[in-house]
């Protein structure tokens, strides 16, 4: 009789753990999906920036970006 109760208790505990694990996997899947969407957006932005012509059409010096008082 005790063996049956122990088995039922262990089974219940395993079902609870499996339920928590399933919820965690679902949450992680949503996070990964969102992060992949963000990565895709950033990759498109980087590609667009690389393809965009620069203001002067040639390579700029970092000194060009200094304020006039320097």
Short descriptors:
mainly alpha; SlyX; 1 helix; Protein SlyX; 70 residues
Structure in a nutshell:
The chain has 70 residues and is mostly helical. The chain has one helix spanning 2-51.
Q: Note the beta-strand portion.
A: under 5%
Major beta sheet summary: none
> What is the total tally of β strands?
0
Could you say which structural class the secondary elements and strand pairing correspond to?
mainly alpha
Number of helices: 1
- Uncertain spans: none
Helix content: over 70%
Termini Cα gap:
87 Å
Cα shape: rod-shaped
Describe it for me?
- The model has no long low-confidence stretch (mean pLDDT 88).
- The longest helix is centred in the middle third of the chain and has 50 residues, at 2-51.
- The protein has a domain at 22-47.
- Helices cover 71% and strands 0% of the residues.
- It is built from 1 helix and no strands.
- The protein has 70 residues and is mainly alpha-helical.
- It has one helix at residues 2-51.
- The chain is rod-shaped, with a radius of gyration of 28 Å.
How is this fold's topology laid out?
Layout: H1 2-51
Biased composition (Basic and acidic residues): 61-70
Region (Disordered): 50-70
Organism: Polaromonas vacuolata
